[in-house]
């Protein structure tokens, strides 16, 4: 599948931003109470990444001016559900943040609802891909699970960085949580990759219905040039380098951030290490997301 | 509304005969000609006279080679357009309601003024029946020539999809596949019509008829047929015919 940069940026940025907002929703139960510069910074970064990503997702639309219509078909469409839940999550999170930041009121109820809606948004993003039966690689329950875990891991990693910037230390418990989340998320992702080599659901034989006669292969394409289907579904560059790129994603997204967080726990340069951990994790996520599209094989390619 | 109708009153669709199709692409061209001027946005071509021409088509003809284990390979021309699936995944994924399946005749259509051009429906379709128009940025697909089949301003024999009307080989048939007594349903039953990618669970309405088995090769015959002799001129009937036969009998 063609990896559209606006969608890659959207899923990585919104995923981490919503993860951070989901983490802030748990604030009233953990570090809640008085407002502080740290709380301000965490909310600003969370909203900026979540909203920035959502806006960039409209850049790949043919008609962004009609994007509001995408809120209407939540009964059947996961893309529509994602839009509806994202708006609900941002509105609830904004009320939650405003009460906390302006009135020193950290509402446990609004916090929980913020966390749930932020996570549901990310789940809906994963389901947009998981619902597509024509792409074997995506059509699995683990797909939205990966999206959810990456979002939480990214959110916590962002938070410990902000925590270090404002308090001067990463915090042992927060750092441990971040490392566990990173480990779990990438372990599930590796499990997801292991399923990538199963036999395809559809073959040129089933696509043409001629399998009972013998082996089927394309003799002539329908046209001499390329077409939309080939450009959109026929992206093949990644498969050649898939193994190397997976390793790069894993090192940038998991190994390096965990080592950097470990470095930050005792060291005085924790802000630097954690800043690098955030950058490395997000870079790893961009590679992972690019591969998510580029590696996926669409059933229509059985005709080409 | 992107929820699919429980049932449709009719299941209008195409039956495509892979035995008869000669791969001439006339259906591709007539489809483009009719639909670029008819329903909705025109079907754009980009760089049409340049080095990388590309265009939007609602119907395309592929050509496959089928290689049986113990026989020579055979060539099958394979026209492909929207199959107007009963369980159309392209419709349910649409976030705007632009894609819909009509409850009266089962035709899957796009309301182009509501399409945001997100491309998700094209991803959801395993058959590649939908193409985003490069100029209008809306999704285009086969309408089963909805502006012909009910059109009382054109002669009755033209009230079939453009591809069906054009096919010089009679390889494309149009009708109600939901009615077991329709000509198309009888044809499907008689010839063993099948679904494409049934494992995708889309329940396509359009059916394909398989190529008929090829005749046995001449090594099954006692002696080779002298094809040249068959081409000799013969006189049929009349005095010359009698004379020809009489001389033949003399040896």
Protein architecture, described:
The complex is a heterodimer of chains A (304) and B (251). With 304 residues, chain A is an all-alpha fold. In chain A, 67% of the residues lie in helices and 2% in strands. The longest helix of chain A has 28 residues. In chain A, 50% of the residues are buried. The mean pLDDT of chain A is 93. The radius of gyration of chain B is 24 Å and the shape is elongated. Chain B has 2 domains: 198 residues, Alpha-Beta Plaits, CATH 3.30.70; 25 residues, no CATH class. The model of chain B has no long low-confidence stretch (mean pLDDT 91). In chain B, a hairpin with a 6-residue loop joins β4 and β5. With 251 residues, chain B is of the alpha+beta class. The chains are: A mainly alpha (304), B alpha+beta (251). At the A-B interface, α3, α7, β1 and α8 of A face β3, β4, β5, α2 and α3 of B. β1 of chain A pairs antiparallel with β4 of chain B, so a sheet runs across the interface.
List the helices and strands and how they pair.
The complex is a heterodimer of chains A (304) and B (251).
Chain A: H1 5-25, H2 37-57, H3 78-103, H4 108-130, H5 142-167, H6 172-194, H7 204-208, E1 215-220, H8 228-233, H9 237-264, H10 270-294
Chain B: E1 12-17, H1 26-37, E2 45-46, E3 54-55, E4 59-67, E5 74-81, H2 89-93, E6 99-101, E7 108-110, H3 120-124, E8 131-132, E9 139-140, H4 146-149, H5 162-166, E10 172-176, H6 183-191, E11 207-209, H7 227-230, H8 238-250
Parallel strand pairs in B: 1-11
Antiparallel strand pairs in B: 1-10, 2-3, 4-5, 6-7, 8-9
Summarize the structure.
Chain A has 304 residues and is an all-alpha fold.
- State the end-to-end distance of chain A: 14 Å
Radius of gyration of chain B, rounded? 24 Å
Helix content of chain A: 55-70%
Q: Going across the major beta sheet of chain B, what is the strand order?
A: 10-1-11
- Largest sheet features of chain A: none
Structural class of chain A: mainly alpha
Helix run count of chain A: 10
């Amino acid at each position: 599948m063609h990896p559209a940069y606006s969608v890659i940026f959207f899923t990585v940025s919104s995923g981490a931003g919503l993860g951070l907002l989901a983490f802030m929703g748990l604030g009233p139960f953990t570090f809640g109470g008085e407002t502080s510069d740290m709380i301000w910074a965490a909310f600003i970064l969370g909203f900026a990444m979540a909203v920035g990503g959502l806006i960039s997702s409209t850049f790949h639309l043919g008609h962004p001016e009609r994007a509001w219509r995408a809120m209407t078909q939540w009964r059947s469409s996961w893309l529509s559900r994602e839009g509806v839940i994202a708006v609900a999550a941002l509105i609830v999170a904004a009320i939650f943040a405003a009460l906390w930041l302006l009135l020193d009121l950290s509402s446990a109820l609004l916090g929980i609802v913020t966390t749930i809606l932020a996570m549901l948004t990310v789940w809906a993003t994963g389901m947009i891909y998981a619902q597509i039966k024509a792409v074997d690689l995506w059509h699995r329950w683990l797909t939205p699970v990966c999206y959810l875990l990456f979002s939480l891991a990214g959110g916590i990693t962002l938070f410990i960085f902000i925590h270090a910037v404002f308090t001067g230390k990463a915090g042992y418990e927060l750092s441990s949580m971040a490392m566990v989340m990173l480990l779990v998320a990438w372990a599930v992702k590796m499990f997801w990759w292991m399923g990538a080599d199963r036999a395809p659901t559809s073959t040129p034989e089933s696509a043409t219905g001629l399998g009972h006669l013998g082996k089927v292969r394309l003799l002539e394409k329908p046209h001499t040039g390329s077409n939309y289907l080939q450009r959109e579904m026929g992206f093949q560059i990644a498969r050649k380098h898939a193994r190397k790129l997976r390793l790069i994603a894993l090192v940038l997204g998991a190994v390096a951030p965990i080592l950097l967080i470990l470095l930050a726990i005792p060291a005085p340069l924790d802000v630097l290490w954690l800043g690098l951990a955030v950058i490395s994790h997000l870079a790893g996520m961009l590679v992972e997301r690019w591969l998510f599209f580029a590696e996926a094989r669409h059933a229509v390619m059985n005709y080409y | 509304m992107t929820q699919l109708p429980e049932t449709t009153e009719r299941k209008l669709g195409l039956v495509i005969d892979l035995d008869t199709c000669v791969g001439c692409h006339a259906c591709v061209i007539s489809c483009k000609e009719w639909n670029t001027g008819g329903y909705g946005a025109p079907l754009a071509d980009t760089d049409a006279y340049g080095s990388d021409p590309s265009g939007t088509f609602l119907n395309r003809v592929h050509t496959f080679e089928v290689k049986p284990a113990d026989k020579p390979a055979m060539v099958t021309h394979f026209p492909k357009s929207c199959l107007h699936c009963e369980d159309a995944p392209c419709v349910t994924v649409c976030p705007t309601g632009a894609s819909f399946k009509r409850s009266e005749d089962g035709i899957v259509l796009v309301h182009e003024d509501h399409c945001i051009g997100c491309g998700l429906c094209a991803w959801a379709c395993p058959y590649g029946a939908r193409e985003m128009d490069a100029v209008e940025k809306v999704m285009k697909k086969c309408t089963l020539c909805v502006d012909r089949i009910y059109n009382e301003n054109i002669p009755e024999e033209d009230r079939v999809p453009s591809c069906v009307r054009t096919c010089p080989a009679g390889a494309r048939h149009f009708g109600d596949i939901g009615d077991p007594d329709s000509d198309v349903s009888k044809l499907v039953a008689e010839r063993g019509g099948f679904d494409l990618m049934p494992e995708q669970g889309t329940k396509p309405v359009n059916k394909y008829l398989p190529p008929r088995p090829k005749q046995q090769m001449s090594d099954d015959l006692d002696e080779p047929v002298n094809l040249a002799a068959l081409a000799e001129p013969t006189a049929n009937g009349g005095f010359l015919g009698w004379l020809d036969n009489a001389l033949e009998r003399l040896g």
